[in-house]
């Protein structure tokens, strides 16, 4: 009998709470139209035209309209959150990570380690290559429980090779010139929000023996391909300058 697929996505309870919060927020906005308009008239001698028009509507109607508007706004926010957060499907044969319409599948036979780092979900093979790295905005504890229940090799909430990563400094002799060129291009792609190019360059760097990750204001960090438990690490060739 095939084991069931486990899906981890943003909590339905959280989305429901956001949706329900739209009701009182909208109602409060409708109730405040009158007091806000009168305050503006008293303090600055006038109020925007839309506020003056809304003030002509009876207060009970304003509160009702505000409640409906708050619910609609909250529903739109929930839809955006669902589209922008990942869903992780953990099956017997592999893992699928989806965000909006983009989906990525990694076969189980390739996965030697699963962990979060610190907010990214990372799937890694036995040679230390990162098969997948995606922002894990669904909760590390929930991911750990699901992967462990499915029998995957969960490695915790810290990269096993954390101490091998180094901040990228352009031009240092630790990396060959071609790697620096690719890292420069990737830095530009990140600044331009060109995620496809940044992802392609990340794979090209791994093909050349360099694993790269992003660390916010610190920029890109790198380590040589290979890792603890993956045999002898493969150090990238040094530049001959």
From TrEMBL:
Pfam families: bPH_10, CysS_C. The chain crosses the membrane at residues 61-81. InterPro entries: CysS_C (IPR056411), PH_YqeB (IPR057798). Residues 7-155 form the YqeB PH domain. It comes from the Bacteria. Keywords: Membrane, Transmembrane, Transmembrane helix. Residues 172-223 form the Cysteinyl-tRNA ligase anticodon binding domain. Residues 169-241 are annotated as: Disordered. This is Uncharacterized protein.
């Amino acid at each position: 009998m095939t084991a069931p697929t486990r899906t981890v996505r943003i909590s339905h309870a959280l989305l429901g709470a956001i949706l329900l919060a739209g009701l009182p927020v909208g109602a409060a906005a409708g109730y405040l139209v009158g007091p806000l308009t009168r305050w503006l008239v008293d303090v600055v001698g006038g109020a925007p035209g839309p506020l003056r028009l809304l003030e002509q509507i009876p207060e009970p109607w304003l509160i009702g309209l505000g409640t409906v508007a708050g619910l609609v706004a909250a529903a739109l926010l929930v839809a955006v959150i669902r589209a922008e957060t990942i869903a992780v499907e953990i099956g017997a044969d592999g893992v699928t990570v989806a965000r909006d319409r983009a989906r990525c599948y990694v076969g189980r036979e390739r996965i030697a380690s699963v962990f979060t780092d610190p907010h990214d979900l990372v799937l890694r093979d036995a040679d230390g290559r990162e098969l997948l790295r995606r922002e894990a905005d669904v909760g590390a504890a929930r991911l750990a429980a699901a992967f462990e229940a499915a029998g995957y090799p969960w490695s915790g909430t810290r990269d096993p090779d954390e101490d091998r990563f180094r901040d990228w400094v352009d031009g240092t002799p630790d990396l060959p010139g071609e790697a620096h060129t690719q890292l420069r291009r990737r830095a530009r792609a990140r600044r331009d929000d060109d995620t496809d190019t940044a992802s392609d360059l990340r794979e090209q760097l791994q093909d050349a023996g360099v694993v790269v990750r992003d660390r916010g204001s610190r920029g890109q960090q790198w380590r040589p391909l290979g890792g603890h438990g993956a045999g002898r690490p493969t150090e990238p060739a040094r530049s001959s300058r």
